[in-house]
Amino acid sequence: MINATARAKSSVPASGKSAWRALVVLLIGMSIALLDTTIVNVALPTIRTSLNANEATLSWIISGYALAFGLSLIPAGRIGDRVGHKWVFFTGIALFTVSSLACGIAQSDTELVIFRVIQGLAGGIFVPSVTAYIQLLFPPQERGKAFAIMGSVIGVSSALGPIIGGLLIQAFGNADGWRFVFYVNLPIGFAALVLAMYWLPRRDPAAPRPPAGLDWFGVFLVSAALVALLVPLIQGQDEGWPLWTYLTIAGGVVLLAMFALWEVHYTRRGGSALVPPTLFSHPHFTGGVILALVYFAAFTSIFFTISLLWQSGLAHSALESGVVTIPFAIGSILGSSQSNRLSSRLGRSVLMLGTALVAIGLIWLWLIFLTQKGSDLTNWILLAPLLISGVGNGLFIAPNAQFIVATVDRRDAGSGSAVIAAIQRIGAAIGIAAIGSVLFGTLTIAKPAPPTSHTAAAIAEVNRQATANLATGFTNASAHAMLVSAIFAVAAFVLVFALPKRVNQRSGGRPAGAGAAGRAGATGIRGSDTDGSGKHHAKHRGIPVSRDAAAPTQGGAGDPALTHGTHVADAKPDSGSTY
């Protein structure tokens, strides 16, 4: 028993300078993924005019990135477990950097969408390695600090994105300023590549590997299904909803059904399914997955709406568009900083509070757009509702995954966490597609009356009326779009009741604020709560999971979906330089 206990304790990593150096590299990578998520929103109107892009293209720039990101999370995490996370991280960063350059030099809207999808794919490749490394390199007593630092970096990156984007566009002009929104990734990505070569540890060749093989046919089916659903949502409004859009949506539903049947069949054959069917034998998990999809559809789409309204409708600069969203980012940081403490005290109620605040904020924004003239809108009018919804976002984002994962068996915690991460990104893609369709589908700009004469005063009056009509048209369309976002938020509030009231050992799941953390907690990285037999004793000591390992959930400030999505199955650290 003594030897077994010693072996269990020796498997816990001992962090030192090398671990903290590795964390610097990982957070550089995480920062550009988050920066690129928020920085592009303020560039959409200038991209539209520079490349003569249509409305569907603007939706694809955001949705394509989010969809590719979500679909690559689970395969990338599995591959990292198998071959080692160093080279998966390196490959993802390299591809992200190259695709950022390609986005910047794109000469057409089609090229930009293609390179943007590749960029999202790259982000989904390297982000799972971030949480995997933190789980592997830091002992339990220091892991929470590492995740808290990561959460701060996520929050700051998200907050700075719109400001940096606005400054770049202001500095380099509307014609080419948007290109520097992508170029800014180049020096950061290059620095991450160089540092990763020297500071990230290799995988220990002697460490056990998870089973070989990946459900590639399952990846194909779910990818095809989601693309079939998104394409008509994005293109339908622009093309007048022809017959092919309805047929494609029906085909997407059929492909989703085929994917579900295939996963059952693949599992019965003894394969490791992309999405284990056992997860959905728990009704609460199914409700939680729908919650994740609906919530991310609600909150990610509001920046799309506000950015287009502020620049294309109200003729503000990109910098002013970035400034207007700062209250939401600040609120998210404030909410996430308190979410772990509140979730320990209030349980599920913290998620109810978070979604309620988001719903209140979005309904408030909808009422503002519905009742105010576009010419009267200012940053100050939007400050309070954006701050309230931001605080709610922070309260919900950080702890939501642990409550959803708590609805499944412990052995499925890693898979559940990865599925939730992918669903969050897919929800963001669907939200942008739906909101974009509503926004542009309801956008009507009245033509001003022709001038009564050719005097300067008459022409000026026509121009003034044209500007007012443009503002009115975009404000009305934004009201319709924000109403849809608010409906999503209210639905998310209702779906919270599908989750358990509290997270504890008996509920089956360990907090999984990161996919790596959830999987490792479920399958083998042992800490002080295990002995040589591998049996967990926290429940005998009465320690709730939300206190035992909730720190990983702090990574959620900003865009926390990026903190999930890997399976650190059996790869245990064995020294400070390899794992």
Main traits of this protein?
about 575 residues, disordered N terminus, mainly alpha, globular, about 0% strand
Please give a structural write-up.
The chain contains 21 helices and no strands. It has 579 residues and is mostly helical. 73% of the residues lie in helices and 0% in strands. It has helices at residues 2-10, 17-39, 44-50, 55-83, 85-105, 109-137, 140-183, 185-199, 216-239, 243-268, 283-299, 301-313, 318-324, 326-346, 349-371, 379-405, 413-441, 456-495, 515-523, 538-541, 545-548.
Mean pLDDT: 78
Report strand %.
under 5%
Contiguous helical run count? 21
The Rg value, from CA coordinates, equals 24 Å
> Which consecutive residue ranges, at least 5 long each, have pLDDT under 50?
1-12, 505-579
| Proportion in helices | over 70%
**Major β-sheet annotation:** none
What letter string, H or E per element, gives the SSE order? HHHHHHHHHHHHHHHHHHHHH
- Give the termini distance in whole angstroms: 25 Å
Strand tally, please? 0
Give the overall shape: globular
What structural class should be given to the helix and strand makeup? mainly alpha
